[in-house]
């Protein structure tokens, strides 16, 4: 299968590309390599996939050493270049992980989110429509649950009260995808990710922020005075779930009723899944695991809640369990140890 992975230089896209290549798929990776966080980390991921930084040019597909992976530095919002890519490559499936990430950054730079997450996603949908791609999976987010305090979060819940523009753009992706499933019979599956962590993770996420501060003897900022929990999900578990979705495109739900419409499926080939650990962890417990793994107690700076943040996330993953017999299995201690081991090695922290 020939698969387009957008966001291939990103955390999840990199790991997904690796796993698909290992099983023999042909992967075209796309990323604009923006400077939201350290581009050297993004290029290092691409190097692991066999792409030399010096060979990368804007809007030109370059092959890796393995020949099974190729990469193009391209912006999702570039309509003409995106259409040309779809026309030239003739994909069997698309997994859209490329997006402007980060809840808090959407308050500082909202236009970046519209450009990438809305305009860019529109170009993905149009590429699928006009070039015969009937299998689209894409990243949504647990952030779409917004003000909803009923937990665990269920995909049958309504998600009409986001608290960040990032969340609003992800909600819009789900609605746009349904429209194209309905109008053009494209199978679309949205995955609401819950706090993904692991090796090669993003520098703006808690595991790296905490590890960097502890190892450099700085205090870590703990928001809402530590009264927060997250459904931390290890990267390998996330990738396994994504691949199950890629291999099993969404189908119409024959039980779906227009009189009592559930939001997670449709008469069109459309599905929404939570993809998380189904076991929230208190933030202080997560910090403790990092302290144990590093072998050093963190200095702690307790702070108020930040705008756009939520106290707790907790995924009901019954959809993936029922449909694919999928359930994450990596214990928190193992996942944190794997992350810390990678972090020390990559940043030469001994």
What would you note in describing this structure?
With 350 residues, the chain is of the alpha/beta class. The protein has 11 helices and 14 strands. An 8-stranded mixed β-sheet has the order 3-4-2-1-5-6-7-12, with helices on both faces. Strands 8-11 form a two-stranded parallel sheet. A two-stranded parallel ribbon has the order 9-14. Helix 7 packs across helix 9 (283-294). It is globular, with a radius of gyration of 20 Å. The relative contact order is 0.13. The mean pLDDT is 94.
What's a quick, concise take on this entry?
The protein is α/β, with parallel strands linked by helices and 350 residues long.
Blueprint (SSEs and pairs):
Layout: E1 2-6, H1 11-22, E2 26-31, H2 39-48, E3 61-63, E4 69-73, H3 79-89, E5 93-96, H4 105-108, H5 110-130, E6 135-141, H6 165-184, E7 187-193, E8 196-197, H7 206-215, E9 219-222, E10 229-230, E11 233-234, H8 235-247, E12 270-275, E13 281-282, H9 283-294, E14 299-302, H10 318-324, H11 332-346
Parallel strand pairs: 1-2, 1-5, 2-4, 5-6, 6-7, 7-12, 8-11, 9-14
Antiparallel strand pairs: 3-4, 10-13
Helix pairs in contact: 1-8, 3-5, 5-6, 7-9, 9-11
Order of helices and strands: EHEHEEHEHHEHEEHEEEHEEHEHH
Task: Work out the number of β strands.
Answer: 14
Q: Strand order across the biggest sheet?
A: 3-4-2-1-5-6-7-12
Strand coverage percent:
15-25%
Distance between the termini: 41 Å
Helical region count? 11
| Unreliable runs | none
Provide the residue-averaged pLDDT: 94
**What is the share of helical residues?**
25-40%
Shape: globular
Give the radius of gyration: 20 Å
How would you classify the helix and strand content by structural class? alpha/beta
For the report, how would you describe the main beta sheet? Answer: 8 strands, mixed
